[in-house]
Design goal:
With 200 residues, the protein is of the alpha/beta class. The protein is built from eight helices and ten strands.
Length: 200
């Protein structure tokens, strides 16, 4: 894994990149730049592990369906928030950001209609190249998330951690987004890279 190469390629592709050694440093950076904003948050173990929700709610209006109900309405509010926070299932050293989604709220919200989108990602999610990043998203991140959600899918219930490309109605990998470059409809897209194992 070459972190510097990853940073350079993400910047080349139009993303702002901030790099931190620890999650605590990254959390401080995140909270310090967001004041008086409406903020949407996609389902993210990484963001949950950072513990920034309570800090962000002190000076912002935050919509996160993991913390608020009814979840459907909270997801809808996230779509129109000024800032959207999410993670990534994988980032390629060549600069592509990959996410897999079941309901579509995360990938749709990360592509349009915000002043800023911030991807918060542990370096454990960096893969050597595009193909490796896609493999990681499908065979590591998706099965682990399916297990976390107690889905009755082959990847969640089987002994081997891998994608079975199943037809289960509980499948969580229904859509894939690949950001090749910063989206034109969003003024800024920042990647916060943290040199820790975070999320799946």
């Amino acid at each position: 894994m070459d972190i510097q190469k990853t940073i350079q390629n993400l910047q080349k592709h139009g993303f702002t990149v901030s790099y931190f050694k620890t999650g605590a440093e990254a959390a401080s950076h995140l909270v310090s730049q967001l004041h008086g904003k409406t903020i949407g948050i996609g389902g993210s173990v990484t963001i949950d592990q950072l513990g920034v929700y309570d800090q962000l709610t002190k000076e912002n209006t935050v919509f996160w369906h993991w913390k608020q109900q009814p979840a459907k309405e909270v997801r809808a509010s996230s779509l129109s928030a000024q800032v959207y926070l999410t993670s990534a299932n994988a980032i390629a050293q060549s600069g592509e950001i990959i996410n897999i989604d079941g309901s579509g709220n995360r990938i749709s919200a990360s592509l349009y209609n915000h002043e800023k989108v911030i991807f918060i990602v542990g370096t454990n999610k960096i893969a050597d190249d595009y193909d490796s990043a896609m493999w990681r998203a499908r065979n590591i991140a998706a099965p682990l998330n399916a297990r976390r959600l107690h889905r009755k899918t082959p990847c969640a219930m089987g002994k081997e951690l891998k994608c079975y490309d199943c037809d289960s109605p509980e499948r969580i990998c229904n859509g894939v987004s690949v950001l090749l470059r910063k989206m034109g409809g969003i003024p800024e897209m920042e990647v916060i890279l943290i040199d820790e194992d975070l999320g799946y």
